[in-house]
Design a protein that fits this description.
Length: about 600
């Protein structure tokens, strides 16, 4: 049967979701440090799940969990506490890989179990599969000898120190978080293993009552081993240094002995377990769960913060790259004396407004035919949309090509250089790969944006020509002079167009006659105003490029690239999700 899902009103739900993502990503990365983090985070998941389950189902039996490394006899101790053989004993290391609960004086259909083991499958012992670690057993033991008068559950758990233990460590911690008493089962061969004390140290912030059972002990060395164990407790978990310690003798088939043949140590163990097991108030569990999280929070979230730092570095570098692109465009086009042709285009539009009545119509039709190739150059697709264009590129086009190429090359190199960053290598690798994949779409978007920008800026050029014409209308003498010069300019343009077969937009715009007219304007009474118009066009052009191309078509998609990265080795936890988890962690214990 499947477990019940967490209710949306659960205040710890954002934290639970984030912890799940943390553990899954650490497990997917697969390196030693990440796998170790995954195991530790599984304990936090379990503790938070316990709070959520108790909020929905506060009434439950007393929970006693047996923990320990391989081959220390946890199943044997479980049978002794039950007073009957219920847990299967095996000489094989790692035989038990699922948590198995034995309910004494309690129904076997408790709803709290489904809430606590959220997403797991509850099965009967024959249905357990060694291919699945997300299963658990909880069954009633009507023939068991109760430890205490009220209902309780004895949990037999998998080991936590074998090679395969990483795969089922979450089940160990799920039971540990549930427990009202932890019974740490050790043996002479295993009591000094570092894995034992690291696990106990990790569990310590939860402040579950602890009892240590030293199994398979030779009475001749029992006191010596007990002293060594006390020293380890003081070293690793000082608050539990005075935990009850019971030694069980080395005895073949101890777990199969009937109660009337139990050695006195077994009775002593049962009495100490009954005296030590006590349920904690929900507020106390909330407090200790927060203590666990606070003790490890910075360390567990270090790789998440590394991803956030990488994203910030990416965006800071992108801002610098866009600013450099603007400087390049300004230097190589707007302030370049040969390439900047925007003002000349405005003058060309002005000359159209200066048509001499009668003569202008005829010359205009001739010019329309002969300058058709030039107009096609202005209206045709550019290098990024049609790489096979046969003509040479114009001044702005050359600069835009360089600006886009440099910016994309820069950000690609920036990401590639950081792929080896140990703090966020998977993130940078994913970003670099995604950037390469998206480059064609980026270029296509830039092409569309530039075509739109150039089309819209033509209107601004026309507006500049209109303003120049209005200024000239205030000076009739100069206007008439220019109209006469316009006829000369038309004739020169027609002659040049015929001579060059209508090719070369730069030649048409910068014909000697047109240069002469421009000189008349800039050196005459309107010189200062002409400079103002030219500068205004420069300012409007850089603003238009920034607002219509660089920011929306390049900077925006590149800036949001980190938000769309996906992959099993990426945490993908947003600052808002971190803030929600921090809020729960910082909240008072009463709301738990």
């Amino acid at each position: 049967m499947s477990a019940t899902a967490t209710t949306p009103s659960d205040p710890s739900a954002p934290l639970a979701s984030m912890l799940t993502r943390l553990r899954e990503t650490c497990a997917a990365r697969g390196d030693h440090d990440s796998l170790r983090l995954a195991g530790e985070i599984a304990l936090a998941q379990a503790a938070v799940a316990d709070l959520a389950a108790r909020r929905r189902h506060p009434e439950r039996s007393l929970q006693i969990a047996l923990l320990g490394p391989t081959q220390v006899g946890k199943s044997t101790v479980a049978n002794l506490l039950l007073g009957r053989v219920a847990a299967e004993v095996s000489p094989l290391a790692g035989f038990t890989i699922h948590p198995q609960g034995f309910a004494v004086g309690a129904p076997d259909g408790d709803e709290w179990a489904g809430a606590h083991f959220e997403g797991w499958q509850r099965v009967s012992p024959p249905e357990l599969s060694r291919e699945r670690v997300d299963q658990f057993v909880l069954q009633r033991q009507p023939d068991a000898r109760p430890l205490v008068p009220h209902a309780h559950v004895i949990w037999d758990t998998p080991d936590f120190d074998s090679l395969r233990a990483r795969s089922y460590l979450p089940s160990v911690f799920r039971v540990a978080a549930l427990a009202d008493l932890l019974v740490l089962v050790l043996s002479r061969e295993k009591y000094s293993d570092l894995a034992v004390w690291e696990t106990l140290q990790l569990l310590a912030p939860l402040q579950r009552p602890l009892l240590v059972c030293l199994n398979k002990t030779d009475p001749a060395v029992a006191d010596e081993l007990a002293t060594a164990l006390r020293g380890r407790l003081r070293e690793f978990t000082p608050l539990q240094a005075d935990a009850p310690l019971v030694c069980l003798p080395a005895c073949a088939d101890l777990g199969n002995l009937p109660p009337d043949r139990w050695p006195p140590e077994v009775t002593h163990l049962r009495e100490r377990v009954a005296a030590t097991a006590r349920p904690a108030a929900p507020a106390a569990r909330a407090r200790t769960t927060r203590a666990l999280l606070r003790a490890n929070w910075d360390r567990w979230l270090a790789p998440v913060h590394a991803e956030h730092a990488a994203a910030a570095a990416w965006r800071d570098n992108l801002d610098l790259a866009v600013a450099e692109a603007e400087r390049t465009y300004r230097r190589d086009f707007l302030e370049h004396p040969q390439r900047f042709d925007t003002f000349q285009r405005a003058i060309a539009e002005l000359l159209t407004l200066l048509e001499v009545p009668g003569v202008a119509a005829t010359l205009g039709r001739v010019r329309h035919v002969l300058t058709w190739p030039a107009r096609q150059l202005f209206s045709g697709r550019t290098w990024w949309g049609n790489p096979q264009r046969p003509h040479s590129a114009g001044g702005e086009e050359v600069v835009l090509r360089d600006v886009v190429d440099r910016l994309l090359l820069h950000v690609q190199h920036f990401a590639a250089r950081r792929v080896g960053d140990p703090a966020a290598a998977p993130w940078w690798s994913a970003l670099h790969a995604d950037l390469e994949t998206r480059e064609p779409d980026l270029r296509a978007g830039v092409a569309t944006a530039i075509e739109s920008y150039r089309a819209q800026f033509t209107e601004r050029i026309q507006a500049a020509a209109d303003s120049l014409y209005e200024a000239l209308r205030q000076r009739p003498a100069l206007l008439n002079t220019l109209r006469a010069a316009r006829t000369t300019a038309d004739a020169a343009a027609v002659a040049l167009a015929v001579k060059t077969a209508g090719l070369g937009v730069d030649a048409l715009l910068l014909a000697p006659a047109m240069v002469g007219v421009t000189s008349m304007l800039t050196e005459g009474a309107l010189g200062s105003y002409m400079q103002t118009v030219a500068q205004r066009l420069r300012d409007e052009q850089i603003d238009a490029l920034r607002g219509e191309v660089l920011q929306p078509a390049l900077a925006a998609p590149l800036r949001t690239l980190p938000d769309t990265l996906r992959g099993p080795a990426l945490f993908g936890i947003t600052p808002d999700q971190l803030q929600a988890a921090d809020a729960w962690l910082a909240a008072g214990d009463a709301d738990a």
